[in-house]
Every structure is written in structure tokens, then in C-alpha cells.
Amino acid sequence: MTDNSYQGVMARRNQIMRSSLGLDYDEFTHSPISFDYEAMMSSTGYSLDDIARIQRDTKVGQTPLHELHRLTEAVRAIAPPGKGARILVKDEAANASGSFKARRASLSAYEAQQKGFRGMVTATSGNYGAAVASQAAQRGLACIVVQEVYDSHHVGQPEIVEKSRACEAYGAEVIKLSVGPELFYVLLRTLEETGYFNASLYTPYGIAGVETLGAEIGREVQERFGRQPDVVAVTHAGGGNLTGTARGLRKVGCDSTQVVAVSVDLTGLHMASDTDFNNKSFTTGHTGFGVPFATWPDRVDVPRNAARALRYMDGYHLVTQGEVFYMTELLTKLEGLERGPAGNTSLTAAVALAMRMDRDQIVVVQETEYTGAGKHHNSQLSFARNRDIEVRRGDPADNVPGKTIVIPERLDQVSTRPLDLDRLRASYVKKAAEVHPVGEWSDGDVEFLAADINGTPDQVRSLAQAIR
Length: 468
Known about the structure:
By secondary structure, this protein is an alpha/beta fold.
């Protein structure tokens, strides 16, 4: 008899992952903390051109890169003399399923089809479920989405409920769960029982699919403006968005472009808390995912996470919920683009950064997402009010996650709060020491950690010494 207890299923996780991906992570592993990252990424066997061709077949990629003329003018009107960088946005809402997540799902769907799987399974509360369902439909594959939707009172955020609807519209079966630890357990059980492909967000296929996004941005900016983008602002949650985009930029020669992570500041709200689950007005792109995944990426549903954001991060900025809702309205009113708040998280930081950058510089907002129904910011604000969260105009510095959403009154109130990357690096190294004692680290471990924190071996040794 198969042991389907929680402990029994977790004990088989590596075996389940191996059979559901056709990928043996043991081939790349060196120690409990280090592995051959580039070899793992290369194991897909696909070049950038291969991926672009695969994506074209299923309505993904080559999305428009819009210059936001009116928003740039508004920034320059309040910026110091000579400041106010040109702002561009990559409109990923043009992809099938309406977000950049279609890029992550496209290669997984192709790989599943090529390997003879009959269907795909993914665990997500975000746009990725709809992306997997859309790509599976185009490849003639079945799709199951395991999704955290409700709190213990069976109340779901309007944005998450809308994403369930989108998954079902594309033909997926959605297994709807309440918030809690059972998500990964149900995913493993479903993979084992169906024999379907694991379309995890964090496989090499998922990250390689996003590399075309960075490559398209880099190529088009260089062709149109004769220079690399100075800054690319990326909404940061689990890290795949930033990792894939940065890798794609580097592959087309944009080695001086600064890749900046942006998250909504939800400090004080715990993502696994039944109470806090519906007191946040953002389901992705916030610090509840962004910080933990940056400081220990291997907390995911595969043995080794291909999304390693700290490795590619040149800066990390926080914005408030109210600022993002304000920029969502402003994008609509000034540029005629009604897009969802998640992508506008990076837009908010881009505007604040543009105010301090020179006029001849370029900042690119790396993605947009579709909006409407429960994903619309008005739905989120109404839901917040119904939960007795105060929504008002004023100084966004007064925002208190889960209690108050303060929407700016003027554009010059939009700002960012930088996170100290050295603190994130120290947290990462401390976690590595908990997984594998410092005294047992090899030179290879130290070199891997140095690459993973975008630092040096001496920096890793210094941080490790402080732990002892």
C-alpha cells in the first residue's frame, strides 16, 4: 500500500519530482547548498531563438514596448532641472492569457508535449495558473491548477477568485484550497496520481521562457535609442521574473543595465496566516514573497530553484499599496492603458527613480498584466473597505499594511524605500549555514554562495565568520 500520509508523500518528493519533470536534479548537486546552476539551466537544450520560435506558435512574445510620453512629461514637470528619465513599458498583457507568465508556461507546455505527458499540473494563486491553462489548451494537454483561494471562512480575495475563473475559462480543473501548508502536499499527490508534467514556476524551463522578455527589451531599446536601458524595474515576488529578465538582457549585451527589484511593502503581514491572508490587497509582487525568496530561493516545489533573484539584483525598492493604486489610475488617465496593479508595482518605482535620473537616461517597466473583474484595483479597494481597512487620500508614508491604504494626492508623493542588499545577503548566508554547517563548506560551496548573493568569496567568508 502506498503511504499517502503527509510524511509519506514528503518522503517521496524527489522521486515524484523526477518522474514528473524528466529532470534529475542529483546530476547537478554538489552539496546540500551548492549545485551547478549554469549546467542546470543549459539542460533545457533550448537557445533563445528556439524559445522565441516555440513561443510564437502559442501567441507569446514580441509584445509592444511603449514609450510613456505623457507620464514622462508629468515626471519632468516636477523633477529637478535636467532630471526626468524617459519611461518605457513592455506591454506583456498582449500575451495569450494576459501576462508575462505565458512565457514561463510556454516552454513547460512544449516540453510536456514533447515528452509525451498527457497533462500539466501547477500550484499557484496567481496569473501563472491561467498561463499554464492557456498554453496547455493550445498544446492539447489537460491541466490541473492547485490554488490557495480562501481563508478558513471560505472568503476569497476578488483577485484570486478572478484568477480561478480565468483558469477554468481556459479549460483547467482548479483544486481550490484554503491557505495553509497543504498546498505542496496536494500538488505532490496530484502529480503522483495523474502522471502529469510538473509545470512548476521554478524549473529551468520556466525561467528560460522569461529570458526572451529581457532579450526583447534589450534589443529594442538598443535599436530604437542607440543605447542600453539604464534601469529595468521588475516586480519581484518569487524571483523568476527578475532572474529570467536579467539573464535575457545579458544575453543580448546589456551588461551595464541595472536590474532593480520592486515589491509592495506588506511588512507585518504573514503570508501563511489565515487572518492576514485577506488583509493584504496584493496577491503577488509583495515583500511576503519577495524577501523570503531572495534570502533563500530553495523554499519551493522543486529540489533546486532556477529563480535566484539575489544573484542578478542591482537594487531592491519597496513601494506602498496606495502608491501602486495611484499609479494604476494615472497610467489609465494619462496613457490610456488600463492594466493590473501587479505590473504597476514596478511602474511606481520607475516613476520615482526617473525623477532622480538624467533626462537622456531610459528606465523600462518590464511588464504589464491584464485587468478587469476581481483583478481591478477598485475591486481590491472595495474588498479592503469591507474588511474595515481604512482607505483614504494623503501621505503614503502613513500606509500601514492590513490597516490603512493611503493613496497619494500628488505625483511628487510617489517614492521608493530601498532595501539594504547587504542585509539580504547576510540573511541568505545565515540560512545556508543552517542547512549545511559552515565548517563543512568547501571552496566550491563558498564560490557558489558568492555568485548567489552577487558578491565575492571573501564577502561570504566574512558573513559566515559573523555567524559562528
